[in-house]
User: Fold these one by one.
Assistant:
Number 1:
Amino acid sequence: MMEEAPTENKRRRISAAGGSHQDISSLTDLPNGILAHVASFLAAPSRALFAVALEDENSAVSTNERSAAIGSQWDILDFGEIEKELAAKLLDVDIQAVLLCIDAVNNVKRLKLDNLINITGAGLEPLRGSLIIEQIDLSLVGDHQNHYLHYGRPWPPVSCDFVLPILDSIIEREGCALMHLQFPIVWRQRASTASEFHAFMLRYNQMWGNREETSCLECNTRFPTGQSQWIETRTSDNLYGTQRHTCYDCFKHYCYGCEIGIERERMLSNCKTCERDYCTNCSKMSFCQSCAYSTCDDCYENRCHKCNEKICLNCVEEHEDCYKCEACQRVFCSECSDPGVTDFSRNCVECHDTCCDDCRFRRFQFGQHNCVECIKTIAPLVADEYKRLRRENEQLKLELESKS
């Protein structure tokens, strides 16, 4: 049996920059060059978390030096770039450590808090007074995701009490660069002119009012017009609390009446699914076959199995004038629903089955479904199958006779 090497020899030795050797007992002992190479394979939030994980009070390298060594591009910090499960585990203390580590107040221009469903917002304190941040997305859902994902679950704890003072410290500074805000749906659902959230939106709109005049890039109409504001503050409007006239991606400003092209496509449209405005240069919009509302193409997950027209996620989830088979997951618009299926809520009155007729017929063939009411709805399919089998049988007879 081989003898175990002495403990002191278990440590690997590598050459330092000056040609000398140094002992490596932990990751913090590795040269910055090696750490930077490892970090180059990670997304920005993962690099920042990596830098935080390397913090060592006994290390001669400061946190900011370490973060600078493993990455210098922190202008966009999008937590949607990391695993959803990991993001859901991060707390305010983690977010604060990340923002301090990368000196976010002087580096981050776009912050997206995708999937950070367990933060209160207190961890955003390092952004206080930022003069360079241009966009803060507090919606907690990723790009092209439905903002109502949290329905049926406990609402995320993100709180106005923690977040609004930080936002105020940004918009009250002269030279504020903030161009776009996206708020959590939980705040917007509690529409009230007496709330602190509503009061902040009025201050945000006033900040825009104090800026130089802004006009639509297509028709030169000045913003805002009439009751329209940069953030919608009418409590009766279903877009209450959403940013208006501003493309989510490029921050360019358009009114909602300007149209271009042969099909008269709007320059700027609001997506019903993700509730963000996009200009035609950043995202193409299409109309849902069921509800006729516009939705950006990247938000569409479903097409009618028969006519191939797009159906928005809201219509599928809320079962509005469309039908989704529980077995094969195919979606049918109201005009193309299979025979006997005119509405998702009208299941079989006997067995409450919600499958499409194709799936019902398939189970009937294998003796797995014998509901009389269901068989009535698939009678046309049974008749077609009988005719098909009869034609095949006749064809086989003719082939046998020709060979005899």
Note: The first strand starts at residue 12 and ends at 15.
Number 2:
Amino acid sequence: MNLILIILSSLIGYLIGSISFSRIILKIKAPNKSMDNLQLKLDNSNDEVTVMMGAGANKASIILGARWGIVIGILDMIKVIIPLIIFRYFLFPTEPYFLYVAAFGLIGHNWPIYYRFKGGRGHSVMLGSLIVIDWLAVVVTIILGNLLGFALLGSLVFASYLWLWMMIPWFLLGYFDINFVLYAILINVIAILSQVPEIKLYIQLRKEGKDKEYKEKITEMTAQFRGLQKMEDFFKSLGRWRLVIGITILIGTVIIYIFLPLLS
């Protein structure tokens, strides 16, 4: 691969990824509201807590409603899908430059140069990129990741991120290409680093005994988290059967990954 083209594709990805549709639409729909200083009032203590979710679709949905959150999420997907398609299928169909566009598009979204490096968390960007890179991987890992996270681990957090972790062995076994594996590792590292402010806030709130109320408030105010919470509650209601289902899904997942090289 050409070093200049690697730098160019990375730069293009970063600059496009830095476009913040959540801020653009918020400025149009609610110019008096701030994406950076969204405060959440806790009922039990009457304290106000700064929401550390990142300037993305979920945070925008709290301010503008679920419909606009969905619109912003779709726009964030499109902003990476278009350059990825151009790089992968038109400009360099035999070279993995599109992976650099995808990776740096995510970096740009999470740490945008246009907004003092304060961005979102990149879920829509990752999803949009992976649809172009390997749409089957998205479908399989999201379904299995969510089922395993809820059924086997009983955790909303694990269900939200397990599919992303599963991308690493998927690309390793399915492609045997170091570029794809490094991309999968990199997006996981970026996802973790972008969560640092939220992790710090959660630790602080837990020390103060406010973490449960904060989680409940955030869940109530975002459609995505409400859906995930309902799934978590459903699997927990199954009792011991939850683990039986989880182990069955785990065995099925292992079988799928064993035969993945044959399917690729």
Note: The chain has one domain: 3-263.
